[in-house]
Design brief:
single chain, 162 residues, mainly beta, Jelly Rolls, 6-stranded antiparallel beta sheet, 5-stranded antiparallel beta sheet, elongated
Length: 162
């Protein structure tokens, strides 16, 4: 769990981790050999962001050990400042398959599209015999000084069922 806001990700075309909190307790790692079919995870991240204009798109990628397991993107109808949260729900279907539901809820200032909800549902292979590190990475399509996103609070929960 984060205990202070992260570093702003701004003006970059490079894929960059959003989860760079100034301080935190615990980690985003699921230890090796600790998951069984039915185990689950929840990741919640609140953030603030600013878009320069309607042609700007931000791409979000959920990764485990650097490998993409789910992704989505967002583009407002006009220049905007907004806040929102990511929700990731994941469960182990069998020993090496993880199903993820990755969603974003956005409350946007201004008349255009004030509330948005986007989501993606996906399955991917993963290796439960090694430590698995979850991350959310972001990337802008345009390098604009006004494009920023900052993670404010993050919480990762491992739900083990027997």
């Amino acid at each position: 769990m984060s205990t202070a806001p992260g570093t702003a990700v701004a003006n970059t075309l490079a894929v960059t981790s959003l989860l760079t909190f100034a301080s935190s307790v615990g980690s985003m790692t699921v230890p090796a050999n600790t998951t069984i079919a039915g185990s689950g995870f929840r990741l919640k991240v609140s953030f603030t962001a600013q878009f320069n204009g309607a042609t700007d798109i931000i791409f979000y990628t959920l990764t485990v050990n650097g490998l993409t397991i789910n992704s989505m993107s967002y583009s407002p109808a006009a220049a905007a400042t907004f806040s929102g949260k990511f929700n990731v729900s994941a469960n182990i279907q069998t020993g090496n398959v993880i199903r993820t539901f990755f969603s974003e809820q956005v409350g946007q200032a201004g008349a255009s599209t004030p509330h948005n909800f986007i989501c993606s549902n996906n399955t991917a292979a993963w290796d439960p015999t090694i430590g698995n590190v979850f991350d959310i990475k972001v990337q802008w399509n345009n390098a604009s000084a006004n494009n920023t996103i900052t993670a404010l609070l993050g919480r990762f929960e491992y739900l083990m069922y027997h």
